[in-house]
Amino acid sequence: MADEAVLAVQKWLNKTYGNVPGFERAPENGRTGWPTIYSLRMGLQHEIGISSLGEGFGDATKSALVPVVNSLRPGYQGNIAQLIQGAFWCKGINPVDFNNKFTIDTLSAVRELQEDAGVTADGRVTVALMAALFDMAAFVLVEKGDARIREMQRMLNSKFSDELQEIMPCDGIYQRATNTTLIYALQRAEGMEPEQANGNYGPGTIASTPTVNQGASGEIVRIIQYGLYVNGFYQGQFDGYYGSSVASSVISFRKFMNLPPFTGTADLTVIKGLLTSNGNTNRNSDTFDAATQLNATQARQLRQFDFSIVARYLTGTVGIGADRKNKYLTTQELANLTNAGLSVVPIYEDGGYELEYFNMQQGIQDGFVASNAAAKLGFPAATTIYFAVDVDVLDGDIDGTIIPYFRGISQAMNNSIYKIGIYGTRNVCNRVTEASGTNVLFSYVADMSYGWSGNLGFKMPKNWAFDQFVEYTAAGVDIDQVASSGKDQGSTKFKVNPNVVRLEFARTLINNSYQLKPIKPYLPSLEVDGPTLHISSALSDFYVKLSSKFSSNNSNTPLGFKISNGKISTQVQAELEKFKQMHEAAKNFDFMSLFSLLAPTIGNGNIKVGISAKNGILGFKVVCESETKIYSNNQQELVKTSVSIEIYTKPNGLGIPAENFKPIYAPVSKNAPDLNWVKNKDVLVACIVGAALLAVPVVAAGIVEDISALLSLVL
Question: Which residues neighbour 199 within 8 Å (Cβ) at sequence distance 6 or greater?
């Protein structure tokens, strides 16, 4: 809803400063927002003599205000008074007037803002007050704010705003400014002078952090109470007295964060753990992670440092150019780790460094890739795979990116033997765990990035299993040291189950194929060398068979494409080019893109496609064969998997009108036998349609108009 007073401010700004070079006009919509605040700032900059206008309220603006602010009191007349009144209207404080006179009512508005902020309500305009006024920061409790956090913010302002020359927001939201000022308060309580204190928990603050016990009192105790409250462990008064309730809260915090000894003493480990996400980086822990493939010697050395769990990556590389190296787990490395007495936790991260990476489709893809990789390494059932969100995602961006991504992972792993975990900031872990349809079991918290907005002021997830807090080099390897809660002990025994590998291959193949959507709900019933599944949908009948052997190469075998390392051979490309030269309708058709959709999933094996018949109806048969190397008991084994899919399309299947598709689904002659494969003078047409049935929507849609023309060449 538009506010008439704000609209009047916007119109006045544009009329008064619209011709000033560099001024950006305010939107005339009656709604307060950053664009209007920027216009107010630019008007102020113009009035105090700054020629190069900008959106910020930086040092240049503050310096230029110093000789001006003392004159801003009742009796002052000029545009700055009207700018101040306009800022108050946008702030939601009623200054009564909107003119160029600093009136008694304007003074009352200044005092109201000061009272809201917790500073002395003397009506004195300062540079800090102007910075707070010409800003979107709130000084009253907002919808999601906490009244007790606002109490803390007002107290910190009352004590330190003059020293800091800054008035922090008092909206009840624990944010970066609140966290920084709370650390500043600790530094001052430790005895640092204002010139030394900076709000950063650095070496000097660490060295000065005291050990505090029950019975103590003072500002440090009050800071401990604040820290316990924002972390969810204290509900008492902020009175600065270390009573039994504070001691009990400290014990609870220690136990939750696994910070022995579990006593009521607040030492560096507790105090820094309350005020920063990474806590005491010199504390002991039993876990580390690394992006390096570890040899036997490195594994033994790291075990001697009292590490018992290592988190490693399932896939991918790290570094670029000459520094590029593999980071993925191998069977040999697993032997190195387990022989040294280390248990292993899997992480999946092949991207995820930018917000644009995260969407539902990417989650589906990553879910299949990760579960496939885990199966081939022999991770046991119920292992949690941690999917990485290695970027500081703002709270407002999580709903549209990270949550859909994890819903995609959940969809992909719905029938997997593995569980879903998340790696990310505290806020991301909490939000995604709480969202419906994500099925996140445990969190691996990126607390080492203590400056990330998603860690500042956010509570540790209740489901945290791992807490990454510092990086360094050990045993010649760059590692991140990680605390563990005990919820996830990792895996120590690895045995590849060939049938799990086969099932994961079938799941991935079918789930990645757009036209096989009707089969997906029946995947839990699919068995290796089990009965053929028959699924009937409105547009097609499907027959699916999962085998541990390849079909024999007899005279009825249709056209087959060999796949090597996820790619179709160049020989096949040459054959396809010959076909395109022979048939005018196929000249502009990108066959290679079509068949290459299946090749990466197969890896090494074959695609066989052709025409089939069942119960007197023509259809298409696609067989995807894959050979996967696995290692069991240090011996290599070749796992063969064959997924056979017969598709009998009904009228309007593939989105093609019944009259155009009639040659495909029309009954075969009564004399025709039920054939496994039906020969045709050019079965490549069957390959086209069969692959289209497995293709993603955009590809399938692209070939529909050409199918009838291609069929007419041979049918």
Answer: 180, 181, 183, 184, 187
Neighbours of 570 (CB within 10 A): 8
Query: What DSSP string runs through 605-664?
Result: EEEEEEEEEETTEEEEEEEEEEEEEEEETTEEEEEEEEEEEEEEEPTTGGG--HHHHHHH
Q: Record the pTM.
A: 0.83
User: Distances in Å between the alpha carbon of 363 and those of 345, 440, 512?
Assistant: 20, 13, 12
Mean pLDDT of 406-429: 94
User: What amino acid is encoded at 130 in this protein?
Assistant: M
Compute φ and ψ for 316, nearest 5 degrees: 95, 180
Q: What superfamily would CATH give domain 180-275? A: PGBD-like superfamily/PGBD (1.10.101.10)
CATH topology of domain 287-484: TIM Barrel (3.20.20)
Least confident of 58-67, 152-161, 450-459, 507-516: 507-516
Mean pLDDT confidence for 219-229: 97
Contact 595, 568 (CB under 8 A): yes
* Domain residue extents for the chain: 4-136, 180-275, 287-484, 498-711
Residues 16 and 32 sit within 8 Å (Cβ to Cβ): no
**pLDDT score, position 6:** 97
Confidence of residue 590 (pLDDT cuts 50, 70, 90): low
Give the amino acid at 655.
Answer: G
Single out the residue of 266, 250, 284 nearest to residue 209, CA to CA: 266
